[in-house]
Write a structure and sequence with these properties.
The first copy, chain A, contains 2 helices and 9 strands, in the order βββββαββββα. With 157 residues, chain A is mainly beta. The first copy, chain A, is globular, with a radius of gyration of 15 Å.
Chain lengths: 157, 157
Amino acid sequence: MALEIERKFLVATDGWKKHTLVKKVPIEQGYFSTGEKAPVIRIRVTNEQAFMTIKSTQRGMTRKEFEYEIPLVDGEELIKACWRPTIKKTRHYIVDNFDQLWEIDIFRGVNKGLVLAEIELESEKQPVIIPEWLGREVTNDDRYRNVALGSTKVPKE
Amino acid sequence: MALEIERKFLVATDGWKKHTLVKKVPIEQGYFSTGEKAPVIRIRVTNEQAFMTIKSTQRGMTRKEFEYEIPLVDGEELIKACWRPTIKKTRHYIVDNFDQLWEIDIFRGVNKGLVLAEIELESEKQPVIIPEWLGREVTNDDRYRNVALGSTKVPKE
């Protein structure tokens, strides 16, 4: 079990593209449970790995997370059993000028074109230097939870 | 992913106790999802191991099963988040006179005193020699699914 502490932001401009791209990963993820009453149970499949993740129901910056790598063939089978539609996005890992690692997700599907940035923190109080290409913070905005983004289009800001 | 093919029976007498006891394991298991619409997601904790298991929604003898061992500390934490009440039972692995391995579950909780026997098969057509201590087969009786036995008392037969 790990504590997942993260902040999430809209991305206002393409300014992030000037930074070092560490890695670019296509992701498909689906859910068995959305965490309304029970924990969120997520299957995530990339081009070479699969994970099963259980996240506690708390909202906000910090959540308990149990993540296990599973065989890719299992992941591909399990994601077929997840709620439709699944979420499809391409994740870009970039390092900004202040050595902060950002995950920039470009969504496909119902939220095609949506771009979100996440940063993982060691503690809730860890300072984050906000790059100029970031938009509004949506850490506490339920509409931007991944589990919601697969099926519900968010308004363009 | 494995195919789980099993048959389940009531236990009519204590006759099984004369057979070789291979192992006796206290089990607590809980669920995040009961498989009504989504797959069954089960956390099982014994005295020394923990597992997360996803089972497909099919009823009857054969189900797809994805089982992963997880750290015991994770299992103990996750089972707290499962639906109440969890299932508590002691599993006895015995080998009968025909070298068949049986799992004899003695339940605690709402079904305290209930005893069920399960046998895992290689195929649905594999013959089973029915020992004289077995009662009625309940493979297709939904009341005897584990996910139901935690909360609903079955009538004594």
